Amino acid sequence: MSLHDKSLTQLRDGIQQGDFSSREVTEHFLARIKKHDAQLNSFISVTEERALQQADAADQARQKNQGGVLNGVPIAHKDIFCTRGIRTSCASRMLDNFISPYDATVVDKLGNAGIVTLGKTNMDEFAMGSSNETSFYGPVKNPWDLERVPGGSSGGSAAAVAARLAPAATGTDTGGSIRQPAALCGITGLKPTYGTVSRWGMIAFASSLDQAGPMARSAEDCALLLQNMVGHDEKDSTCLNRAVDNYLSDLDNDINGLTIGLPEEFFPADLNGNIADVTRKAIAELEKQGAKVVSISLPSVKLSVPTYYVIAPAEASSNLSRFDGVRYGYRCEDPSDLMDLYKRSRSEGFGDEVKRRILVGTYALSHGYYDAYYLKAQKVRRLIRDDFARAFEKVDVIAGPTSPELAFGLGAKKDDPITMYMADVFTIAVNLAGLPALSMPGGFIDGLPVGVQLIGNYFREGQILNAAHRFQLATDWHTQAPTFAGDI
Amino acid sequence: MAINQDTILRVAHLARLQVSEQDCEETTSRLNDILSMVDQLQQADVGDIAPMAHPLDVHQPLRQDIITETDIRAEVMPIAPAQEDNCYLVPRVIE
Amino acid sequence: MQWETVIGLEVHVQLNTQTKIFSGSSTQVGAEANSQASLIDLGMPGTLPVLNREAVNKAILFGLAINADINRHSAFERKNYFYPDLPKGYQTTQLEHPIVGAGIVEIELADGRKKNVRIHHAHLEEDAGKSLHEDFHGMSGIDLNRAGTPLIEIVSEPDLSTSEEAVAFARKLHSIVTSIGICDGEMSQGSLRFDVNVSVRLKGEEKLGTRTETKNLNSFKFMERAIALEVERQIDVLEDGGTITQETRLFDADTNTARAMRSKEDANDYRYFPCPDLLPVNVSEAEIEALRDALPELPDTRKARFIEQYSLSSYDADMLAGDLNMANYFEAVVTQANDAKLAANWVTGELAARLNASDLNIQNSPVSATDLGQIIVRLKDDTISSKIAKQVLEACWNGEGSPDQVIEAKGLKQMSDSGELEKIVDQLIADNATQAQAYRDADENKRKKMFGFFVGQAMKATQGKANPQQINALLEKKLTQ
């Protein structure tokens, strides 16, 4: 078995046992990135020199019986996480020259666990998009079909993991940005309960929705990575101060008696029949293992997309005001006055989709429209949360398709953003409610992966990871690799 | 609620974005697409539901009043687009 | 036409916490530009605010001091606008749910009339940085050291009708916030800044006129002048048939003029919304009660105590109790001198005049309370006369040493040796025999007028050190012998 076919857990164990060194593993993945990423474009920055230094340090630590639980294991970070001394671009021209003066808490925590950083992955600009086509650095290709999108916004992380250019990666999820690309690229990705992972150093898109999470090939690897990302952080007021759960200890538990709710709203009449089939088959596998399946309804979830497209742009319009060409980032040439400095720096520094969302958000918050848009959306948001709360009185896990569609062709939805927005219908409600959810590979249609989403109650990451792990013990969808980059 | 080009220009100014005349029409139509999708919200019967600003019902932690930050100019001033004498430089501010 | 003025104030009070409201940076003034601007204060991407407990406590203390409702749940919102001294492009503030609700501040005017001014609310927010215009060859330099300094903004109802009332109100707020120790009260450094909303209307009219806001006045004197100027301007405009535009105005103290501000004219759509990075702030009853117990003496209570304890006049008590530093100074002088009446006279008289002339605060007084107390002690034990005491004070003011050192070094001790004084008086009468004879020949009335001449001569001969009572007695005796 090639090093790149090994799971994150296997690599961790192999390095720990001395089967191979961190340097060997790191060099192997760097070589793969060098060889294959020109086609995929999944990385914005490859930090080779630093990665090798970290690998050597990890190898030395191992010899002294030191080093964290992920000592020497290489992963990639989405380029939304601030990394000290390394460009942190958020895939925007605005931050093309931004060398972060500090590390995000996620980067810090994983660093303390011994992680080696291979580089920073491509994404939709400021995480705004579901296809990874809004990046200043060009689109990412789906390794299952280079003519198709990998999904977004964490498309670079998903593509890199699927193509085995990295054993795992970090992602962020505001409306499905971990789960949807995980689904479209055939990997496993988890968005934790809001407040579980610190947002310090994660460049904000919509602060009340953003949450970082792991992207890897299996639920087991996600659990391992997640375990080293979570925990209270005094630097983030919204990061909860509660005991850290152990996501690994319950992975193998049987799922006998687990109640899975299937919301009718996740299986609408116009849902692609093949996707519905794959999803139902996956759920049948869980049933076979003793899970009980019941029908439920989440009536307000149908309003989640419009709700999201008020709240997320509103928060974003304010969050992105700091990019003004004054203290860091892009600044236009020879501004004639202050207004010119602001307007040109921001208009030249942001891409079209980002500007569109800033305009929508500014409008939704502006005088005379606040009640009709923002306040209304906040009220519907509570209805959506209440729907889930009622459902979780009856069920342990809610399941359905992650996305109503397969990876689509590059540029296919360029002129139809609304259709693309609507495709996030299954993932967005979870962010509005703040719940944990994951996407796992559930099968293939025409050689393209299909993701199945498992949604848990608050702080029940362990439960959905357990169900996904049990599913992956019985199936091999998650071990399938695209033929692209099959060699070294 | 459809918006017109004047509104777009006003909103763009508030957001400190330029919308050129040739782009204005397209931007307006794109934004109207989004807003008409968003207008589905108006069907919702929210009654006296309280608005929800945060996903979790938790309250603000408070920090001790102790100095923890140090002078970081050596790290942050070099990444500024324009600076002089430890200050960030901008075109003259007229009050 | 009879016009009536309506004034409301918005007062920004910098809280004297060690660190900023949302970051652990120092709030010390006078540091090198941007040396106290952390990642958070700079609005770096990915940074987040965490609320300072002391800022919350100090806001609550203010609320308790004005008997306001303390809101058990308050929340922060973002006020969005672009300005170079506002690094995040929004100010984190409170709008819908401020921490301090409605309260009352009582003011007393020069004629003794009292008036209640209603406080609409007071909220917590962050201060902005500073734009510097000098030395940047036509550009502006941005210093963000002040960005994030905690403020409470106190918003009054439009209950004030003259500039005198407005100043009395402003002074009272200054007195409260310094007395309860939440603000250093340094007006010249912008620790308290006043925005004045002014409108005028015809007497009897119920509807309020259009108001203007004159921003950032940082002295009582400027405030008084700015209000007078604005009232006059509005009346002129209206009497000429014009209308008042709602606008923000800037007062220039150097030229004593004001003009409408240009930069913020289009920025009045602030798009407030709840700050998603901060959670609702909960304050428990127990926390409020603990703060209530810790609330320092309020100026009104102190004034009453001064009248009671030190038998001061209302006027003196007002002067001494209003400012915490003044009050502390006064009480330290009393402790040293053991004479409240004299202490009050000296602090509100000679010392206050000197401080005023040099534009100094009591806390920067070159003469310590101990020294002033010692001067009074020496006055009372007849070591020096009150005239000499002023001389000693001046020497102490100039840093020439402690009162006793000054008295010793300059030989200012009062001459009370009757033998010695007798010799001087004898000599003096001999030297001025003609005047002495004239005195003896004069009637009671004339004598009274002439007596001063001899006292003057005696003081001149002793360089003012003669004990005045002894001199008087000796002269009276010797001149009539």
Given the structure, what is the number of helices of chain A? 15
Q: How many structural domains of chain C?
A: 3
CATH H-level superfamily title of the domain at 3-258 and 435-486 in chain A: Amidase signature (AS) domain
CATH fold name of the domain at 3-258 and 435-486 in chain A: Amidase signature (AS) enzymes
What is the residue-mean pLDDT of chain A, rounded to a whole number?
A: 97
By DSSP, the count of extended strands of chain A is: 11
Separation of termini of chain C?
Answer: 74 Å
Total count of helical runs of at least 4 residues of chain C: 15
Structure keywords:
heterotrimer; B: 95 residues; alpha+beta; two-stranded antiparallel sheet; 3 strands; 9% strand; flat; C: 481 residues; Arc Repressor Mutant, subunit A; three-stranded antiparallel beta sheet; elongated
Provide structural commentary.
The complex is a heterotrimer of chains A (488), B (95) and C (481). Helix content of chain A is 38%, strand content 13%. Chain A is an alpha/beta fold and 488 residues long. With 95 residues, chain B is α+β, with helices and mostly antiparallel strands. Chain C folds into 3 domains: 3-288, no CATH class; 297-409, no CATH class; 418-479, Orthogonal Bundle (Arc Repressor Mutant, subunit A), CATH 1.10.10. Chain C has helices at 53-65, 163-179, 220-239, 285-294, 299-310, 314-321, 324-337, 340-358, 369-380, 386-397, 403-409, 418-431, 433-441, 444-461, 468-479, and strands at residues 3-14, 51-52, 73-74, 77-80, 90-93, 103-108, 114-126, 130-132, 139-143, 150-156, 192-202, 212-217, 248-252, 257-260, 273-274, 281-282. In chain C, the strands form 4 sheets. In chain C, strands 6-7-10-1-11-12-13-14 form an 8-stranded mixed sheet. A 3-stranded antiparallel sheet of chain C has the order 5-4-15, with no helix packed on it. A two-stranded antiparallel ribbon of chain C has the order 3-16. In chain C, helix 7 (324-337) runs parallel beside helix 9 and helix 12 (418-431) crosses helix 14. The chains are: A alpha/beta (488), B alpha+beta (95), C alpha+beta (481). Chains in contact: A-B, A-C, B-C. At the A-B interface, helix 9, helix 10, helix 11, helix 12 and helix 13 of A face helix 1, helix 2 and strand 3 of B. Strand 1 (62-63) of chain B pairs parallel with strand 2 (51-52) of chain C, so a sheet runs across the interface.
